[in-house]
């Protein structure tokens, strides 16, 4: 299979990273700017980006559908004189369905083009010229059809390929458990995929075997639909409130620190090396950076700042062997893991995939310590792209 790579002049669409910085009062002005730009495809895709950020998911997806009827290749607004041209293979869907790469390349010399893959449709006859390609589609039930068709398409790809689809497919919660469960120094909750019928049967029992455990709908993200089950009655109530047909169940592991708070760390493994993205601290066992209200707690931000400063000699050093083995098992060039430490000092893994939100959009006046840490992470991502380019150039026929 051969591919025609062509230099393309593409009118860029707005970056989600830039949109995330936009204050609410500037939205009308931004919409006016979007409407004034040429091209229906970009108009629709810009609206998808905008309403994904500002909370109208249904309308955003409608706009994306209209955009993809017009075209499947889009360029993210960024460097006008790029040193690296990156092509990302995307799946249709909302902001959680693909790796949010525009946050990683913001204010760099990397040009990011997005190629959306439509199930049942061939690749375009002409593809944008690029230096490196990365599979950005994340593992999920709705993306599986796209991912399963990718590897035959990219066997003869004319440029280096990062994050092959066959490894992304291993990032389902149950597969990650199977991949990592026997690693020394690491704890990962036993996780299995179950049907609604199986959970209904459990809810009819007098006792709840294996409780406490957690349950969540199959493709849910950001804690949506996640609950801790302590009894058969609690499971029955959960199922009454959910219309999902398939779920993941996991053993609940209490990872509270001595002060009673829960701490969850987000790490990007880039070319096998760990880079911290955030430390979230919360009273609740479901820890997400937003719900942890870090902005309201100066002492938690101070702890996060110290954690980031000491990460290489602290957390990353304590768990260096476990993190290295995780990278070796998952075989992804870029993967984001959410993790913590158990009371016994093990690395506790919650999930691992390519879609975790890694960014530098928190207000600098409240989080001044984050910028240097995130720039280090972004530089590592750029270095990974350069390394892939140079490895290909060194093996090219002279």
Automatic annotation (TrEMBL):
Keyword ATP-binding: yes
Residues forming coiled coils: none
UniProt keyword Acetylation present: no
Record GO terms (molecular function): ATP binding; metal ion binding
Keywords assigned: ATP-binding, Nucleotide-binding
Domain ATP-grasp, chain residue ranges per copy: 178-386
Transmembrane segments: none
InterPro entries linked: ATP-grasp
Protein name: ATP-grasp domain-containing protein
Originating species: Gallionella capsiferriformans (strain ES-2) (Gallionella ferruginea capsiferriformans (strain ES-2))
């Amino acid at each position: 299979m051969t591919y025609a790579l062509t230099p393309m002049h593409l009118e860029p669409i707005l970056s989600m990273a830039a949109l995330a910085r936009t204050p609410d009062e500037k939205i009308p002005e931004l919409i006016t700017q979007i409407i004034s730009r040429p091209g229906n495809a970009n108009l629709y895709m810009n609206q998808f980006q905008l309403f994904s950020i500002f909370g109208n998911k249904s309308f955003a997806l409608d706009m994306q559908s209209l955009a993809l009827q017009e075209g499947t290749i889009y360029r993210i607004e960024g460097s006008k004189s790029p040193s690296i041209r990156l092509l990302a293979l995307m799946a249709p869907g909302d902001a959680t369905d693909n790796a949010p790469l525009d946050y990683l390349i913001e204010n760099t010399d990397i040009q990011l083009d997005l190629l959306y893959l439509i199930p049942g449709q061939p690749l375009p006859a002409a593809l944008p010229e690029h230096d490196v390609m990365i599979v950005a589609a994340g593992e999920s039930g709705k993306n599986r059809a796209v991912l399963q068709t990718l590897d035959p398409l990219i066997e003869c790809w004319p440029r280096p390929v990062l994050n092959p689809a066959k490894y992304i497919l291993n990032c389902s919660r149950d597969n990650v458990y199977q991949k990592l469960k026997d690693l020394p120094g690491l704890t990962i909750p036993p996780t299995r995929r179950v049907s609604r019928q199986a959970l209904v049967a459990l809810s009819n029992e007098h006792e709840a075997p294996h409780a406490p455990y957690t349950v969540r709908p199959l493709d849910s993200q950001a804690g949506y639909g996640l609950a801790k089950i302590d009894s058969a009655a609690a499971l029955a109530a959960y199922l009454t409130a959910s219309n999902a047909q398939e779920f993941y169940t996991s053993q609940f592991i209490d990872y509270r620190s001595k002060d009673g708070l829960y701490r969850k760390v987000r790490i990007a493994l880039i070319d096998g090396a760990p880079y911290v993205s955030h430390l979230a601290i919360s009273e609740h066992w479901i820890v997400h950076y937003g719900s942890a209200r870090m902005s309201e707690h100066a002492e938690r931000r101070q702890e996060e700042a110290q954690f980031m400063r000491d990460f290489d000699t602290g957390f990353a050093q304590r768990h260096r062997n476990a993190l290295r083995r995780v990278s070796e098992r998952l075989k992804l060039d870029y993967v984001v893991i959410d993790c913590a430490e158990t009371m016994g000092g093990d690395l506790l893994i919650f999930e691992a995939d390519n879609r975790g939100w890694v960014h530098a959009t928190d207000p600098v006046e409240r989080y001044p310590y984050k910028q240097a840490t995130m720039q280090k992470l972004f530089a590592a991502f750029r270095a990974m792209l350069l390394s892939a380019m140079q490895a290909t150039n060194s093996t090219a026929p002279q």
